[in-house]
Amino acid sequence: MDLQLMDSVRQLLAEVERLAGEKIAVAKKPELAAPIDFHLGGRGEPRLVFDYRPHPETDVNFLIANQTGHLLRFFSAPAAAAICPHSSGDLPSSSPHRKPASKQSPAPVGSTSSTA
After folding, report:
1. Entry pTM
2. Residues 76-90 pLDDT 10s
3. Per-residue b or e along 51-84, where b marks 16 or more CB atoms closer than 10 Å to that residue's CB
């Protein structure tokens, strides 16, 4: 990859790969309309695909960090909360893009523990 990425962005990409259980497929696409595009692969594609438009004047660190945040949430959330819309509806929790849910359940948002 000929992108100049910050170390922190490289760490985010590595964490996405760790949670997903596989490497991100990277492809240079000069014809791409946006500077970058992350997507979950379809049939016959790698599970995680990252395309980028090679333009040195565009700093893509922020864009990549933003997109990896969404991927980190997707791969670390319980299956019921990891909704990823696509053209034919939401992916079922049995989707090949999801790893099996962990046994731990996070506390609901806004919940607090009370010791009184």
Report:
1. 0.66
2. 888 776 665 554 444
3. bbbeeeeeebbebbbebbeebbebbeeebeebee
